[in-house]
Amino acid sequence: MKVAAKVMMEIFKNEGVEVVFGVPGGSVMPLYDALMDADLLNVLTRHEQGAVHAADGYARASGKVGVCIATSGPGATNLVTGIANAYMDSVPMVAITGQVRRPVVGTDAFQEADTFGITLPVVKHSYLVTDEHELPRILHEAFYLARTGRPGPVLVDLPGDVATALIDYDPDNPPEPNLPGYKPTVKGHPRQIKEAARALAEAEKPMIYAGGGIIIAEASDELRELAAYAHIPVTTTLNGKGLFPEDDALSLGMLGMHGTRYANYAMTNCDLIFAVGVRFDDRATGKVDTFAPDAKIIHVDVDPAEIAKNLAVDIPIVGDAKWVLRSLIEELRKLEPSPERHVPWMRQVEDWKQAHPLPLREDPDGEIMPEFVIQKLWEVTRGEAIVTTEVGQNQMWAAQYWLAKHPRRFISSGGLGTMGYGFPAAMGAKLARPDLTVVDIAGDGSFQMTSQELATCVSYGIPVKVAILNNRYLGMVRQWQELFYEKRYASTCIECQPDFVKLAEAYGAQGFRATRPDEVEEVLRIALASDAPALMDFRIKREANVWPMVPAGSAISDMLGGGEA
Amino acid sequence: MKHTLSVLVENKPGVLTRISGLFARRGFNIDSLAVGETEDPALSRVTISVDGQDQPIEQVTKQLHKLINVIKITDLDPNSSVTRELVLIKVHATSETRSEIIQVVEIFRAKIIDVSASTLIVEVTGTKDKIEGIISLLRPFGLVEVVRTGKIAISRGRKRT
Fold first, then answer.
1. Number of domains in chain A
2. Where are the domains of chain B?
3. Which residues in chain B are closer than 8 Å to A156, comparing Cβ atoms?
4. Does any CB of chain A come closer than 8 Å to the CB of residue B67?
5. How far is B117 from chain A (nearest CA, A)?
6. Do residue A68 and residue A202 come from a single domain?
7. What is the ipTM of this complex?
């Protein structure tokens, strides 16, 4: 018999956990006591939101399960945003929350909250541990569920007296998961795959629309092979950035609301969409009725509920993207499609690319334009860095101008759109990939939502870089107010802000500022070369907008700005 | 079209909350819901009636399937399944109306399970049509309360639901 909290450390080890993020409190004290002797890195963040986003960033950069810990009540409720964020973007995560002791559960005890109930709509699965002997099986199941099928966050709510109870656990013979209702489909239906291959071989104007599911399934190589073999242009979702090299001639960048004009034109005019690891999100499709009106749609996803959720699909395939792509390529090779038949389509796509490139603006007043900073950052890092983003204009500029080359190196809050995500996620990503430069492309508004984690970075020596595109606005909302609310800037002017350079220095990090374009590269070079966490305050053109833009509810071919239609 | 979904689930705390929460947040309406243990105490059966016109039944079942504790979902075909509901009806009864009410109860093969000076409690089991029939005939006497279990269903023949 061993103390349950110590057993949890053995299970962490068994599951390959290298790092946990969290904040202690009354009901998780036994767990923290055990962590002191455990063979893993225990990162104390300054807020639980920092912990959960860091676990998320770690998971996305590494492909492993991210682990975060919070105490009962407010600690647990502070995790909720980050759990919802991980759920929306299918991030493997185990969140462990303390709960009040079992005898007082349900009595409104000090720091009691119904964490199980509060998180129910935003978890893949959850457990309230009521029997200490069930704990080993539950914890192993949590990791298994988090990383398999369509990954997601799994919550384990752990009463304090369970953590101190004595239980049996043999690390060499861990309990098997007992999940009779959980059988993710890996192999796609062979007949459907054959039909998809035939459709691809017959199409004259095909498109690949690929998303985060490819990265999760580690299927980037297969997707690249398919695109190259069959000569099909590739557009990705925000979370798909990096699954296909965006400096490749076949890449059309991101589609949708702030996608490239050429990706949106190509999607609207194609005759076949091969959709894989995507969920036809409204930001990608625009108005569904006018989305790809002439296209046959093949949809591959591991989650059957995503198929035909938002629009009708002609050839559905449920299965693991890597498995399905492999057999599809095999089937397609048998058909020996002629490389000639796409030539007019490829020419048309190339014409759109030439005619409507993303704008590269030079400001008449000599101010810094956001795309200039991102392009310089790309040059300085040769596009090899991991980029995380905050949410808003900064995120969309990053999506447009950062040409992602590798999977797991563009990390952004896509589904939930969580401001404050990028900086703690960068911390987690840096711990997952210490060999790579990690930069959070931030806005001044978003960064202020989790800036306290500068203390964590300094304390643990995590040399994350933050590039703030500082316009002293909540810029994306301001842009919408400019366009749709007669420039009535309600609650979006945040001119009262800290001196970010001094803020960084106050925490013991480095701070730099650029106010003119000719200062940008030097700031980047100095900040990225240092071994310390560093913040760069780029004072950009205040009212720079994100172009092109599809107004909400419009067809994705109806774009405003960024080159003439 | 009305669908009767027979959902086999693990008998674990929170399962019903997961199901009802899923219906609420996805905007699906539940017409009726009944839940109870099966022949295997580790499993429960949830019978849910939903309107397939209001929501795509395929999306409802796919979302239900995503719940880890849900083991099997059967969309029961009305021709090859039997459905029943139990209803308790408390109806006003005076010395003048009592015998008339008893006649109605006999015609429907219902039972009287409680009698007071001014009320009768009627227990009736049956299909939706039968239950609505007896309720409409008892309504003129004055319904005090109607309590329904919600529909349960099972497939006919040897096949397991």
1. 3
2. 2-76, 82-154
3. none
4. yes
5. 43
6. no
7. 0.91
